[in-house]
Task: structure prediction
Amino acid sequence: MSDFRYRAAPSPTGKVHVGTIRAYLPNYLLAKKYGGKNILRIEDTDQTRLVPNGVEAMIEAYEEVGITFDEGPHVGGKVGPYVQSDRLDIYKEYAQKLIDTGNAYYCFCSKERLEELRESQRANKQRPMYDGHCRDISVEDAKARVANGEPHVVRMKFPKEGGTVCHDLIFGKVSVKNSDVEDQILMKGDGFPTYHLAVVVDDHLMGITTAIRGVDWLPSYPKHVKLYEMFGWEPPKFAHLPLILNPDGRKKLSKRHGAFPVSQILRKGYLKEAIMNYSILCGWSPKPEDAHQDEIYTPEELIQLFELERVHKTAARYDQQKFDYINAKHIRRLDLDTLVEKVMHWAKKYVLGTFISDAYTEPAAWEPELKSLVAKYLPKWESDLEYFKRALSLEKERITVLGDIPAALDFFYEDTLTWTDEDWNLKNHSKNELADALEVVLPRLEEIFKDENYDHEEWEKVVRGYADELGWKHGDLFLAIRSATTGRLQSPPLLDCYAIMGWNKVKRFIEQSIVWLRK
Ligand code: GLU
Ligand code: ZN
Result:
């Protein structure tokens, strides 16, 4: 056990995607690694960004991918409340302290004045920033105006001379000239604090020892360091994580390119261990001597290996293929019983069940079809788990996501197959030729299957023999049989499938296919 304390501090937008998972995973991994605490704090001071049940939706999403919290609005804790809008009195008190010590001041500038200021600075090619107009209003005057009800904000009185130096665990030394730093608003006109005041007060009062956040906050870091100094507090360590970009490497990860809601990622059948594995590899790699060549790590291994010092400084790019590869690998390493359990859980909870965020998430194009397939097959899967397990064992090495399973196993469960022209290779043989060949082959296959001990070698020899008799390429005949009996051009080894399906089903499909081809 240690007294390391980490925090995730999301705004309750209700949205969780790979980028957010990556942002909060380090807290969880490090808290587990060092026996510290992972805290959830909700930063809802921007009331314009709220969605109904946003907090609950986010907690659900984090916990479903395995990021759990030791303290937070849902589990309580000693340093609550954990929602910033419940802490307004605290911020007011600390803003007052800064005013009393001369480190902050009231600003009465109107929106119009600030707008004009910005315009003229832009016109003069200056960096837009507040000009300190109210900085020197006397304390008595300012207090009187506030008492009179004049609208105002509270600004930080950032020193004008010298510089500020901070140290980031990932980016190293960050320094600024103080004259380049704006007098940041700390309390807004609506009585809410800005992020800058709230984050400093909360991280301090909540005893945070390492604050991990997005690199977009790096430019604000000196302001925060200065606030700690003004309060006379020891700042926590800070680590700023680089962004994840779209695959083209230009913009921040967007909805079209991988910022899919976690609800959809889980529903599609990505495993939580794969989501963790992929997300953390966005911009981090273990020490070379600890690295696995296949890049597959269990959550336990990530807890062992993760360290902030090895987070890359450069932005990562979202890579769907890598995510798919990692998920497929995690599926393969499960033993069959565990996989079956996971499939059942996935089908019931994620596909047929709902996530809180579904209430305001636009469904993806594939969702309705997946839901209806799972609704159709789940009762069949459950009615004979042994059969399901055997069928699944053949597909386990082939699927990328659990969502591939219903369609991949359909021929094990259907009594009737249907085909389209694309299910056959019609370039080399016409439908009639295919039907003729299958008619010849059917009784001979039946012969083989009557023999309990038929094996792969015998089967392949026989099919090749027929193909030679017909003057066909071997591959063409295998393909025709595959299409006839599974309804597709690719499948697990046919004999393995037939051993599970049984000859009657195989025969029925061949007969149906002949009828279809003759139409
Ligand atoms: N509430 C901030 C955001 O959503 C998080 C900043 C932090 O972690 O300090 O971007
Ligand atoms: Zn002002």
Summary: The pocket of glutamic acid (ligand 1) is lined by residues 9-11, 43, 199, 213, 217 (CB under 6 Å).
